[in-house]
Amino acid sequence: LQRKCSDMSRQEERTLPTKKESVYADGVSKEHNLKILQLNIDAISSKVNELRMFLEKHDIDVFCIQETKMLKKDKTPKFPGYVTERKDRGETRGREKGRGGGLITGIKRNIPYKRHDGEIRGPKDTITEWISIEVPTTDKKKVRITNAYVPPIRGSGSNQAVGGARDRKSV
């Protein structure tokens, strides 16, 4: 992560009205500059402390982390002040100890959201991993933030759909 910290400074900042309360509910919204961090972390376990420091230093509101390489039995890292949504890669029978893929999305506790479970893959895509959340905005609208990872297809002998990577829905 140390080498990648310079890459983290390229977070995207957008103006987005959000509510200040900690629930997804009707009410009055205030404008808030929402800072979103996207990072392919390539295994999170040894990089948690550095990531926590970066989130605090740069006042990140939502972070989308790919390739956590966590297994279901691993505890979700704690990020003070954030609620996390996690999705691990499905474990293939016989390869339960193989680590790969995986996502964590973190949302500041004062930002209301709800998880959105809509499908983003096309009919032949069996490899894309994603977590989507919706954050309410003014006028009862919402913005959807999707944390997605598309693993590389490893050769033509793969049991994954050959057309999978080309057969994605637009998001």
Layout of secondary structure:
Layout (H helix, E strand, L loop, with lengths): L4 H4 L3 E7 L11 E11 L7 H10 L4 E5 L15 E6 L15 E6 L5 E3 L12 E8 L5 E8 L22
Parallel strand pairs: 2-3
Antiparallel strand pairs: 1-2, 3-5, 4-5, 6-7, 7-8
Query: Could you spell the SSE succession in H and E letters?
Result: HEEHEEEEEE
Number of beta strands: 8
Helicity range: under 10%
Q: Beta fraction of the residues? A: 25-35%
Low-confidence stretches: 1-29, 157-166
Overview of this protein structure:
- The protein is mainly beta.
- It has 2 helices and 8 strands; from the N terminus they run αββαββββββ.
- The strands form 2 sheets. Strands 1-2-3-5-4 form a 5-stranded mixed sheet, with no helix packed on it.
- A hairpin with a 5-residue loop joins β7 (129-136) and β8.
- The chain is globular, with a radius of gyration of 17 Å.
- Residues 1-29 and 157-166 have low confidence and may be disordered.
Please tag this protein with its features:
globular, disordered N terminus, 3-stranded antiparallel β-sheet, 5-stranded mixed β-sheet, mainly beta, single chain, 171 residues
Task: Give a quick precis of the structure.
This protein is mainly β. Helices cover 8% and strands 32% of the residues.
